[in-house]
Structure prediction request, 122 residues.
Amino acid sequence: MKKLIKISVLAVLASTFVMAPATASETEKVFKFYCAQCHGLTGKGDGPNVTKDFPVSPRNFTSAAEMDKLTDADLKNVILDGGPSVSKSPMMPPWGKTLTPEQVDGLVKHLRVLCKCKGKQG
Ligand code: HEC
Prediction:
């Protein structure tokens, strides 16, 4: 039994290191793992980490009005380099060292699905 558990843990680990273009379901996993604790499972900015002491609210990804102010390049930059890189709060961490470029591109697409918007063009 122990051996079986070990093997499945290894399989899970191995699968996270395979560098393939991020599929939609893979992106959902990445989002749940790294983003949902602040931005919420459905992206409304209401994750379990957010208390009333949070100085700023995590962006509500379902707000097309808010998300249309940002280009896809803006989203990518803030995901890679964190809030301060775009003069926003350091409560938004940088992910450039944690996520692969494919995962970041997948997340940008995922955010556009959540807001049902195309974003600012340019
Ligand atoms: C520790 C909490 C936390 C986590 C985890 C987190 N964020 Fe954020 N995020 C924030 C906060 C707070 C803001 C709002 C910053 C502001 O408005 O100053 C934000 C803002 C954003 C914005 C909008 C930036 C803008 O210019 O308006 C994007 C896009 C974003 N986060 C994407 C992500 C993605 C993708 C992940 C997962 C890889 C993630 N965040 C994980 C807290 C977090």
